[in-house]
Amino acid sequence: KYHISITIALIFMSMSYSLAQNPLINDQFTADPSARVFGDKVYVYPSHDIIATEGKGRIGWFAMEDYHVFSSENLTDWTDHGMIVHQNKVPWVKPESYSMWAPDCIERNGKYYFYFPTFPEDTVTYGKGFRIGVAVADQPEGPFTPEAHPIKGVRGIDPNVFIDKNGQAYLYWSAGDIYGAKLKENMLELDSEVVTLKDLPDEGLKEGPYVFERNGIYYLTYPHVENKTERLEYAISDNPLGPFEVTGVIMDESPTGCWTNHQSIINFKDQWYLFYHHNDYSPDFDKARSIRADSLFFNKDGTIKKVSPTLR
Ligand code: FUB
């Protein structure tokens, strides 16, 4: 079945060069896009989906062994800067865990901090389940040097970092609910207690936090499963750690059944954009996804207008 999926994917990919801008990357699977504006370019740090095969990941499940970073000056032409972090090159990572899930990257004082969740090798020291590591670079495209240990006090997936106007940085992540804490100036250690972000919906999985600020409003955006597939929702607050008020839907559930979605939101050249993913190139297997972007608009009161994906 997966070989058929791959064949279909390759056919779609070869057709795509003459088609529209979405999906953004056409020669490999990409998911969970974390978009950032660094200088005059947009950089996207996605997960890099591959198809698991015997001895290489868990067949029928997500499989990722590394990360690439892509940049663009116009959101149409993308440069692949190549592999920036590989599971076998991070000291604390279980070799060949194929679980390099959704990352994020942020700049502080001329350094670029790349956050990624995956499984540790030493479960006695780090426990079972996902931990979150950091790799540091002098340029957005690397080379990135991984830290020797995952971040202390953090267990979960989908790291997201937000730096407030006063310079305080925050780390967010998910583990069923969404959690947050202050980060130290060094961006490598927590600087506060971990809080469970309130008041998000009680029911259903919430993951993929992405926080941004606009006109004094802190927006916490997150995929939430209420029905069958993930819907992109948001909540607002006047404080980066909440409490938040559930405010609306950014993108409805996938009309074609892709189970996950995962977002980031940036302002580039005075236009807001939503980055997200869909399984365009793998319609029969929703763990092989492709990143997309569409314009995003706000209402006068600061609420977000729903984005309709430009699906094929
Ligand atoms: O890519 C693996 C997982 O799927 C991510 O961590 C979640 O946000 C979902 O997109």
TrEMBL record:
Which species is this UniProt entry from? Marivirga lumbricoides
The alphabetized UniProt keywords are: Carbohydrate metabolism, Glycosidase, Hydrolase, Polysaccharide degradation, Signal, Xylan degradation
Signal sequence range: 1-20
Family listed: Belongs to the glycosyl hydrolase 43 family.
Q: What is the lineage of its organism?
A: Bacteria, Pseudomonadati, Bacteroidota, Cytophagia, Cytophagales
**Which protein, by its recorded name, is this?**
CBM6 domain-containing protein
Positions spanned in the full protein: 4 to 315 of 449
